[in-house]
Amino acid sequence: SDGGSGYEFSQFNEIVTGCLCHEHVRDAYHVNQKIKQRLNFVPELQAELKKAIRHHDWSEIELVLTTAESTILIDEEEVETHQKEQIRLLKGYLNRNWDYLMPLYKRGLGENLRGIGTCESNHRPYSYRVKGHGKYWSKDGVRNVVYVIEGLKNETLEHAILEEMPEYNKQQSVQYKEALKAAHKQVAHQSHEGVRHGSIFHISSSSSSIGRLNKVLSTV
After folding, report:
1. Better pLDDT: 64 or 155
2. What is the pTM of this model?
3. Which of 26, 34, 52, 85 has the smallest number of Cβ neighbours within 10 A?
4. DSSP code of residue 170
């Protein structure tokens, strides 16, 4: 989860009530985004902070943040105040989410698992199709779109369609297949005449506005 409103541990815990194990993790994309936003004045330390998170070592976190604070320009009061506030906010964010930043391999789920785990990045095939760009859906409509996307991702769509519409599997004629192939072939390049040149006769280019227009057309 990204930890936003409605996506806290308690919300997920309610969804999976009764499961034997619930491992809640912060989405890596949003964690990295927060680091980039807060430490934009010391980009060279961003990778070090990400490494400290992967190690899940709070002493490393404090070392990186202390180093970042030491780079602040104390002779510019406004900048100093802003950058110190960014560090304070980032430290608070990491502290609040510390339990959820523990990598999977440190949770006893298997040594080969790396990263902090994420499911949110897998939402993109759905969210890109059904959100934004002024799209609006009925409840049934958005459910059907998600079913189609899910079927394509899991390669189960054709099987599902055939169960409902066996006629979908009818063999197409040879002529139809050939026509389809022909339609997909790239059309051969055709040369074009391009821009035509124009001119206005019997008018001097220096005597009037029409003459100036003649000069422009002659140089096109």
Report:
1. 64
2. 0.55
3. 85
4. P
